[in-house]
Amino acid sequence: MGPDTLETPAWLMRGVVTVNATLGTLRLDAGRLSFRATGAQAPVFDVGLAEIANVTFPFYNVGTVVRFDAAGTRYRLAFLASERRFKWSGARLSDVRPARRWGKQWKAALGAPED
Fold it and tell me: Which of 23, 37, 92, 112 has the least C-beta neighbours within 10 A?
């Protein structure tokens, strides 16, 4: 991956919790942001950075969740979750450090304001 490319695991949330969230990969490459669910052929979304607005990292998620609007849809993705069915309850303390690191990388890549 080049310097303008970023790819991390992420969970596409349905609402404000990660229960039954979709595990996949969030990727930024060549000015396009996409999310592809694990095992899926087509991405859930693939949009140009210019189409992304209202990027926020809510303070109460300690940098582990990003929200943004893209092509008329609001997306919420978490970097902190586990493979268990009830994601937040399954996350371990050891999961926080990488999730916060990924959140910082995405905050910089998406041009979100610093806290």
Answer: 92
3-class secondary-structure state, position 84: coil
The predicted-structure confidence for 82-101, as pLDDT tens digits, reads as follows 555 444 445 666 677 888 88
With a pLDDT cut of 90, the percent of the chain lying above it is: 49
User: Rg of the chain over CA atoms, in angstroms?
Assistant: 13
Buried b (16+ CB within 10 A) or exposed e, 44-63: ebebeeeebeebbbeeebeb
CB-based contact 32:8 (threshold 8 Å): no
Domain layout of the chain by residue ranges = 6-110
> Domain 6-110 has what CATH class?
mainly beta
